[in-house]
From TrEMBL:
CDD domains: GAT1_cyanophycinase. This is Cyanophycinase. It comes from Roseateles chitinivorans. Belongs to the peptidase S51 family. Coiled coil: none annotated. InterPro entries: Class_I_gatase-like, Peptidase_S51. SUPFAM superfamilies: Class I glutamine amidotransferase-like. GO terms for molecular function: serine-type peptidase activity. Gene3D superfamilies: 3.40.50.880. Keywords: Hydrolase, Protease, Serine protease.
Amino acid sequence: MPGLLPIRRAMWKMGGMDAFRLITLRLRVLFALAALLGAGTAAAQTAIVIGGALRMDNDAVWQRIVDEAGGPGQARFAVLATAAANPELSARLIIDVLKRHGAQAEHIPVAPRLEGIDLQRNLNDPALIGKIRASNAVFFSGGAQGFIVDTLQPGGRRTEMLDAIWDVYRRGGVVAGTSAGAAIMSRVMFRDALNVMEVMRGTLREGHEIDRGLGFVGDELFVDQHFLKRGRIGRMLPLMLAKGYRFGLGVEENSAAVVRGDRIDVIGGRGALLVDLRDARSDPALGMFNLRGARLSYLDNGDRHDLRSGVTRPAARKIAAGAPVPIRASARGQSMPSRGPVDTFQPDILGDNRIVQAMSELLQSPATEVRAMAARIRPDATEPRDRTGFVFRLYRGADTQGWIDVDGNAHDVTLLDVRLDIRPVRLPDPNATAPASTVPGAMLVAPAGLR
């Protein structure tokens, strides 16, 4: 072997101990190179984060899941419906659609709500663990993500079955999950935080609202699901600040993000929102959640983003004659009709898709900023009457840009690097008697500092 020749020559010129040291040094170099090659192989690991409510007829997403696992005839899935309320039904539906797209798939019956099994026996069954290791992909169903981590990682300790799943992933396999199965992809996850406003107001307890995830997407990326539909931007940002995350990815329903190393491909329905907090700041003196300088990017079906370089490649349908079509231009290159002043105040930024609508409004108009409110105006009887709200200010940066479908589909957009500031405000008591001259709804813009 050529690589050994220098060692042989050197051994003639030095004593045995020196020769041994040289061989040891060379072996260390070889091991270091092997480690580097192993790190390169890790980039082939693929996590598929599905935003929940994935339709069985969403062929684009299902086929991509199968293709990432080797394609028809090669993809072999272990399906875990651990989170599901009806594990047997959930597993059967997932297996049927995977098989329809050319994959092999088998149910791994490990779920707290699965009747007629001994959960601990199945969890430690060598035959079931072997079936996972023989797979090249694992699929987690939706349901309650707490069931997944409590079963596979009780008290933060990995079970042998979870080790088997990691073995599949590390050798270049696929781990896919929808809804609860997507929530577990980060090292930290939301466990039970349905009330977004309470998270913004500071309720973020370990073991309650948040918990350990399984960490398939790495240490720097936080993921959430059902994101735009349920206004979960409001809970993602406080968690990212609290846990030191640089990037957040909120995947919408009936959509998916394929995460391979630093690359993110968005597919399906309504896309995903990417949050970048590398340049963001927070002022602890305010005493409540606040944020300045966050960057938001909306990635649609077919868009690709690289976290390391920060470069986004819009989908091909947004490219005309080799160049992106700016969002403020029509397919003919003419300016879109002006909507007039749009420096407006929107009352519910946490509503269905409202954050993306506000971003699009900003880029498709002459407005320099758009402001909106996050607030619970009529608190439930069981909740404290906390009258803290939050003002969202979306504005342009020097690199803010966007693209639109060349066919003029106003809903098919890519929006990059919109800036976001958030600060707390005190709202009037909705039960207080208002002066007769008060215009209904004006209380939202009345508090000092809102403007």
